[in-house]
Fold this protein.
Amino acid sequence: MDTSRQQQPINWFRQLQEFEAKRPAIRKAGIEALTRLVPVALRSTGQSAVIGRFLLGLYNGPDYSFVLTDLRGLDTTLFDDCLAVLQLDYSPEQEVHTYLPDGDAIWAELIRKWA
């Protein structure tokens, strides 16, 4: 038995502090990514459908389920933006649609197009 690599206990408090220290950068990157994704989601392409359903899944997962493997069909830039928005929503400060002006109207349109 290799005792030289003993597992260190998880310090949840330290992890929380580290996450909170990163939160401003996560928030900024996530909101910027969200503002790039929404116009794409409002178009009528295959990638638009994936992004639209992804955003709806963050908004209300039980009503608008999303298959994560669909992200594989996105261009890498769009994929990275989805990950940034997902990270923004990991420990949400607010509902994803409220980060944008007219978010309620935008999400109503996404529901109409992709639900």
